[in-house]
Amino acid sequence: MERVTGVLGVTIQQLAIRRPEEFQAVIDVLRRGLVEGLIVDADATLYTYQPQIIAAASAHRIPTVFAWPRPVEDGGLLGYGASVPEMYRLAAVYVDKIARGTNPADLPVEKVSRYHLAINLKTAEPLGLTIPQSLLLRADQVIQ
Prior knowledge:
The protein is α/β, with parallel strands linked by helices.
């Protein structure tokens, strides 16, 4: 991401949350208006704080992009990530092979081939953002 942002002239500030007590520092950065957008990585800790992240970003008019689509239903602007149904399907295939006697160490690592793009136009409107039609046409889910 840093490589691409340099070409675009955008600066990234990484705000890591590894422990619950670090969450407030990120909210303080949002509150002070030091960011123009927020990309939320796919992480169990961040998933736990999803409602608070959406509320803080909304209160401070900061667009949010999540690495999974579910937060868009709760007010995130955009979510793009691996298809959860496909991840479950792949997990079921692994479980079936292991149950039939395959050694887990012999199973290949498989990548999900289907990704899900979700966009929330209700969130975009108060931010003054217009989502390009070309992106809306690619979306798997658009919340109006």
